[in-house]
Amino acid sequence: MIPNLSQFILLTLLGIVFLFMIPPQKTVVIRRITNITLFLTALLSVWFFCAYDTSVGGFQFVQNIPWVTSLGISYHLGIDGINSLLVLLLGIVSYSGLLVSKSVQDRVKEYHIMYLLIVAGTFGAFLSLDIFFFYFFHEVATIPVFLMIGIWGTGKKEYAAMKLTLYLVAGAAIALIGLIGLYLSTGLGTFDLVAIQQHLASNPIPLHLQNIIFPLIVLGFGITLTLWPFHTWAPVGYAEAPTAISMMHAGVLKKMGAYAIIRFAIQLMPEAAQIWIPIIATLAVVNIIFCGLVALTQRDLKYILSYSSCSHMGYILLGLACFNIIGINGVVFLIFAHGIMAALAFALAGFVADHTKTRNLDELGGLSKVMPFIGTCFMMAALASAGVPGFANFVAEIMVLLGAWDQYRWHAVAAVLGIVITAIYMLKAIRLGFQGPLNPRWKELRDPEVLSAKIPFVLLLGVLLIVGCWPSLILNHIGTSTKPVVEYFAKK
Amino acid sequence: MFVSINWLLFPLELLITLTLVVLVVMDVLLPKTVKKDWLGYVSLGANVLLLGFWTTQREVIGNTFNGMFVEDSLSWFFKGFFLVAMLFVFVMTHKFFKATEGRRNEFYLLLWLALIGMCLIASSADFLTLFISLEILTISLYVLTAYTKSDKFSLEAGMKYLILGALSSGFFLYGMSFLYGITHSTRFDVIQQYVSSQPLTPITLFAMVLIFAAVGFKIAAVPFHMWVPDVYQGAPTPVTALLSVGSKAAGFAILLRLFSVGGVFAAWHFEWSMALAILSAITMTYGNLVAMFQTNIKRLLGYSSISHAGYLLMGAAAGSALGASAMNFYLLGYLFTNLAAFLVILLFSIATKSDEISDFAGLAQRSGILAGTMLLALASLAGMPPLAGFFGKFALIMSAMKSGFLWLALIASANIVVSLYYYLMIAKRIYVDAPRSTSPITISVPMRTVLIIAMIAIVGIGIFQGPFFNAAITAISGM
Fold first, then answer.
1. Are the beta carbons of B401 and A180 separated by less than 8 Å?
2. Alpha carbons A106 and A96: distance in angstroms, whole number
3. Phi and psi at residue B68, to the nearest 5°
4. What is this structure's pTM?
């Protein structure tokens, strides 16, 4: 059977249908079905990533079915270097997220159905080459995420779930206005991204309209991307969410915002981008420094990681503001690297929190002594986060900084400072949580014993290291697809 | 004057009347001791047959009774809509009286009468026919609302509805009399001709506003919404469902005939579109803000239905074909969504004797299917993909933006966030909170089937929007 892109969505939906038919008591079967489904989609994502022909470029494996003809909506899937990478990211993170979900014992059936629904929606969003369907799939995750945080979360879970959902939906609603504005102002009567791209290359949208649409899209999806000062949903949301959701959201879902900004705002409206980009660059630096400083003050392991994740979104925004090939490449690279790193860090923090029932660093301490494997993994994740060479994040951040250096020298300097801040709070977390004297309460704790429980950590860490040491593995993909974006700037 | 009547144009109305007559006879002949709900079964069967018959009526187009009655794509669309709505209402009624042991036969008769009224509204091409059919519908609804006469909320609801309804009928007649005085006709096409050739004068403006007030009462737009919360709460649940879907859609059918691209007042679009846009903004915002503080689920859905009228008015304010078809599509999604919600409410209240939102706590652990249907309905009302409510809101917002109402689109999107809050609060109660009682609620197989059908419809319309949106466009294009 020849793989096609719809299989990502259909497979996950098929998994959901199977899960519906199984009685809730049969948790083993439920887990197995979900496992098979997500394993297959992960394999598919690898297959497509490898099968994408970088020498040809452009959108490949395209499927196009007219959907609502009168409004120009079509079910149009395809991958280029950028979204094939994001699909790969999702394949890896969703599978690891499932593997760490073994600790969920309560209402297993609902958990897995909702999890698959989130994965299905996110695959759809990344694969869609139709603006309508991008938005459609992007919103599918909203309700399941709300319920999953509400049901399986911890602490202030209801507040966290509501805050996260309302912020994200507010952002999405603003972005929707922008996207409809984009659709109306092209005058083409189609939501097809490829058609719009081709049309706009020769007939750009009038600047006064761009100046309305561009900020709406950037603000709307910026909220998803934890743009300062709209980032406050993320720390509490990620901290209280069940581990798999923290991983998925910090790792993949919020990256949809960055993806949408690249695809719909910067690429389609470069003129307005040039006007608004200095503001974005400044906000990016505020993001990096502000969220980094807040992370410094936290004593809660998951809060530190959440603020760290917000802070690192600043690099993505800064890279977007660069307008040159190295900056944009860095952004896509960072989306991938940070996605894997955040998933790893949250998986580890979730493991610790599950077993100790606390996330407070003052109560933890010396965990590496009883859990050397987890301790080592966390150390590696922290180093990756701080941009130590050898990990994928280093390559990404250095590219963003190089890209920013010419236009935004002071911003770049501040961003480097942000890396120092990251190193400080990450090392603090290691020192308080994993080093030092062992808190006697945790004497009984052990590393995951079965090999399968170690797989998610090893998998994520392996990807970080491999990509970090061999960046061209994904850089070729990125380069083929960011070139058109940047060439377009150069022409202007 | 010789009136030629084309009997083939309104077979559906004739058949409905025939069913009503059969039911009356059955009511008289059946002994009072009969336990079985024969009228309910006959009603359901007849409704299904009529729905089948309706599908064959698509090509029947024309007008009769000297142009007072029209059969076109719009009326065809709405008649199917009303028949589907009635199907759910009959099922709910059957269930309702199984649990409450009241006199149910008259209830069915009144429902059929309401159905005739709604179908005639969809086919009205004259202010007189419109007024009569409106009264047929509304008077049946007065009685239906106050039907459970031992319940003081039901009585209060009936009284409120009657007084405000009578007032709105008065408005309507008053407005109509002005138009008649000026144009010497009550027929839509004559008035439309006048409108397209004459500018708006204070008198015609006054008439138009009065008529809109009557329509606004039906669709529950602010400031004509006062009756909604009490009536929704007090009326028997099947009637609330009918009010929120059937009667509201009938109001929108009138709105489309009067205030839309091909409508009677189309030529004065420039004058009324801004007014409708403002009303739309106020209606949706008011409905959503007040709904946040409700503790009774029927009352909450009452306020939410006000806000949905606000969203729908966006399409009317847009005054374009896109806006009108978006309204049709939205109503279609709203039909299944709201009926599913009310069916859950009914089944829940039969099992627990409560309509309080706090009693919904932990419903997911007591009945998976009730919880699932309610979740889908709420998410669809909030406009979340991949459900029916999403594409409707999307199309409405698009139509408003296309007509230059960017501010209205922004207000609507802010409203989506507000409404999501209270819908999610219910979802949270159902799925997150611990149940007050752990006894499972069992749902019979037929009810299960109906719930599943409703769910499939909500998801199906939400994913395969194409054919439904095309149907919505066709309905408008043949007007």
1. yes
2. 20
3. -85, -20
4. 0.94
Q: Are strands B69-71 and B62-64 parallel, antiparallel or unpaired?
A: antiparallel
A67, A151, A166 ranked by CB distance to B432: nearest = A151
Are B264 and B191 a contacting pair, CB within 8 Å?
yes
Length of chain A: 492
- Locate the chain A residue with the closest alpha carbon to B383: A139
Peptide bond into B11 cis (omega under 30): no
To the nearest whole Å, the CA of A284 is away from the closest chain B CA by 26
Residue B417 near chain A (CB below 8 Å): yes
Alpha helical stretches, state H, A80-232: 81-99, 108-127, 131-140, 142-152, 157-186, 193-202, 207-224
Which residue from B394, B417, B431 is facing A166, i.e. has the nearest CB?
B417
Identify the CA nearest to B168 among candidates B141, B204, B195: B141
The predicted pLDDT at position A292 comes to: 92
User: Quick check: B256 and B319 in contact, CB under 8 A?
Assistant: no
Residue A42 pLDDT exceeds 90: yes
Nearest CB to B398 within list A67, A157, A180: A180
Measured over the CA atoms of residue A374, residue A376, residue A380 and residue A385, the dihedral's sign is positive
Q: Is residue A406 pLDDT above 90, yes or no? A: no
pLDDT in tens, B311-336: 999 999 998 999 999 999 999 999 99
- Complex confidence, ipTM: 0.92
Q: Are residues A483 and A325 in contact, defined by beta-carbon separation less than 8 angstroms?
A: yes
CB contact at 8 A, A309 and A475: no
Burial of A340 (0-12, 13-18, 19+ CB in 10 A): buried
Q: Which residues make beta-bridge pairs with A65? A: A75
Which pLDDT value is given to residue B1?
Answer: 56
**Tokens at residue B2, please?**
């010789």
All residues at 6 or more sequence positions from B468 whose CB lies less than 8 Å from its CB, including other chains: B329, B332, B461
Contacts of A174 in chain B (CB under 8 A): 413
* Token couple for B21: 């007559």
For residue A111, which of A69, A153, A80, A82 has the smallest C-alpha distance? A153
When pLDDT is cut at 50, 70 and 90, the band that residue A144 belongs to is very high
Residues B67, B125 contacting (CB under 8 angstroms): yes
| Structure-block tokens of residue B310 | 């606000």
In eight-state DSSP terms, residue B294 is -
Both tokens assigned to A40: 């297959």
Which amino acid makes up residue B418? V
The residue extents of the domains of chain A are 6-491
Contact (CB<8Å) A70/B416: no
Q: Compare CB distances from B427 to A140, A147, A170 and report the shortest one's residue.
A: A147
